Amino acid sequence: MIDGKLPESITAAVAVLRHGGVIGIPTETVYGLAADVENEIALRRVFAIKGRPSDHPLIVHIASTQDLALWAQNIPDLAFELAQTFWPGPLTMLLRRGNRTSLVATGGRDTVAIRIPAHEVALNLLREFGGALAAPSANRFGRVSPTTPQHVLDDLGQDVDLILDGGECSIGVESTIVDLTNVVPQVLRPGGVSVERLESLLKIEIESANGPSRAPGMLESHYAPICEIELVESPLAARNRVAKLKAASKSALVLDYCSDLDAYAKHLYDFLRRADREGCDVVVAVMPPAIGLGHAIRDRLYKASVRI
Ligand code: TXA
Ligand code: MG
Questions:
Q1: Which pLDDT belongs to residue 113?
Q2: Which of 152, 177, 186, 293, when mutated, tests ligand 1's pocket best, judged by the most ligand atoms within 8 Å of its CB?
Q3: 59 phi and psi, to 5 degrees?
Q4: Is residue 161 part of a domain?
Q5: 284: domain CATH number?
Q6: Domain count, the chain
Q7: Residue 138 is part of a domain; what is its CATH number?
Q8: pTM of the shown model
Q9: Does the CB atom of residue 113 touch ligand 1 within 6 A?
Q10: Cα 240 to ligand 2 centre (Å)
């Protein structure tokens, strides 16, 4: 693990990537497991390290909107409008795959998911690297995403070539994925950019992201800690539930940052990881309201609560 703020760390990371290495990188949403999108051996290693099925596509990270046309084609004007407002930032756009984008990265699909991350370390890395980096969240498949370099070290430290320390992620939940390959844009995954902001910019109503996920790889059960997650709609219901659990000799923690949705998103994954470390049996999570970041938090909590 090296300090991503130092220029020599970026140079070292670029050298590792050019040799087909796989590294942990900070973004404003969650830490990513990055590899050169043009190196298929490195991409396969990303899937192997995560334990992720090869047909679950990766997000391609770029440094500048000008690079969009290198990796996507038939790009609608809307994509450039969205880029102008939301990039760098937690918005991923689904576009038609450009010929240069490896099918290994897109899980065999003819679409590609692309974003510019809003994190100084990631941007410096992308600029010095020159190409694009495919990066899923740096956690094992189906488990809780990492929001600190220590989380990446805990999960994947044995398997990655390097981790760039960029501190704690400022947002804490993944990017919003918007599909621009059809006439009507669709949100495939709620995330750091709220659906309300997208709707007000596009002046259309975007199809609701509630219900089963449509993005491949976004299974019903996801982001799952070892402990059980129970969802409640109010602090009072949480207290009652905890009392019952304690009476049944179970250890329980209440997760409730409903008064501050930014803090809820930022601390969500660290809270779930801590609950596991402390051997907690059940996390009783108070669902935030379905507004702004609340959509993404509700989605993650719901998926973390489902056991298949
Ligand atoms: O905030 C984020 O988006 C983070 C950081 C590291 O950028 N990345 C992330 O990647 O969350 P990952 O792999 O954990 O989730 C990406 C999801 C996939 O599960 C898949 O559902 C969707 O993006 N996706 C990627 N490419 C796609 C494609 N071509 N078609 C449909 N969905 C796609
Ligand atoms: Mg993920």
A1: 98
A2: 177
A3: -90, 135
A4: yes
A5: 3.40.50.11030
A6: 2
A7: 3.90.870.10
A8: 0.95
A9: yes
A10: 33
